[in-house]
Amino acid sequence: MTLPRSWLWGGAGWPAVLLAAAAMAAEPPIALLPDNPHYLLFRGKPAVLVGSTEHYGAVLNPDFDAVKYLDTLKADGLNVTRTFSGAYCEPPGAFHIARNTLAPAAGRLLAPWVRSDKPGYANGGNKFDLARFSQPYFARLTDFVAQAGRRGIVVELVLFCPMYDDSQWKLSPMNAANNVNGVGGVRRTDVYTLEASGGLLAVQERLVRKIVAELRDCDNLYYEICNEPYFGGVSDAWQERIAGVLLDAEKGLPARHLIARNIANKSARVARPYAGVSILNFHYAVPEAVAGNYRLGRVIADDETGFNGAVDAPYLVEAWNFLMSGGAIFDHLDYSFAVGKENGTFAYPSSQPGAGSPVLRARLAVLKRFLESFELPRLRPDESAKGGLVLAEPGRQYAVYRAGGGSVELTAPAGEYRAEWWNIHTGTVERTETIHHAGGAMRLSLGDTQAVAVRMKSV
After folding, report:
1. How far apart are CA 272 and CA 126, in angstroms?
2. 207: nearest Cα among 281, 104, 111
3. Could you tell me which of 269, 248, 271 has the C-alpha nearest to residue 259?
4. Which parts of 215-297 are beta strand (E)?
């Protein structure tokens, strides 16, 4: 397979191998913030991650211009993207997604394993040899992470994904019908198990170790064990085993990369976090996902949105509700990115299971800037607030939001405070006020729209 020139040479003419070297960590990898592990430390600064990601095919789909895509994210002021490893892909039309980047054209899947000399892969081209890794794939993967790092963008690399139905399993290189290694002759619900995987566990562990070795020096990276493991027969024991392989593979490194575990759709209370897992991921998350797990002292993320209409508004509300509850990562699933539309301007049909646009990305960047205007290490959810969401360092700083407008009541010590009313669509400060507060309850009016948040700090 011939790689596009952009994956052999960077936009400024630097060889990809040098770009990868440039991404080696002058700082340690992104980590939990020591003073407040509900947030992140990235390149020496406290951080929240806010993104709007294409449908996870930026690496495995070689027809997707990922450099242009990353340029778009940077220009839009966002700092995280999510991508799949290539062990999983989808057929065209899956989940009613038009121009799905996870559905490469026939013969174009770029997987971690080399193509053999035997024809017969289900979506065109030769079968895969799971005993040998693909140099073009790893060149693209390492360059993608390096290119993202140059732009200040963190990559969430999803190692595995369940086979939701037989149409995905039919396309997986791990399926015995698609490889020459005599492994993977199992049902799709046995692929991610310890005992019944038909030889795939060793293949999966070897892949994890190879990815870790290739990306060991990247500071803008964390790993997710498996996307939506609550579907498709993924066993808890298998997930914990893969987490252990990640830990073991990085045992000798100066600093380890964070590991994320996908918990549930909406919310769930985690009774027993896996050892080494520092990020708890939810999809289509609600504030209860944060409140129910805040006690664990880990980063809580909403790293996929959707199924709430093909218009932008609900996803902006979801972002504000989640991060203003104490979450640290929000990554919208943005269907305006497609092959040929890597600038995020694809006019998707109304049947799409989600939304995305330049306008939404600009508004998500406002949320990121709003939170970054506070001293993040000191912010905690204010559970005593009424009528809205408040992050606070009592007596010093308050972030206030209520979807739909109205008023929010909080409790603050006596003092003088400067309050700014932010338009969450434009990022402009619409008015300011100095508040002389006698102490106790304070009521802040956010007006009659959902487009206002308040930033208040002591004077």
Report:
1. 43
2. 111
3. 248
4. 221-226, 259-265, 277-283
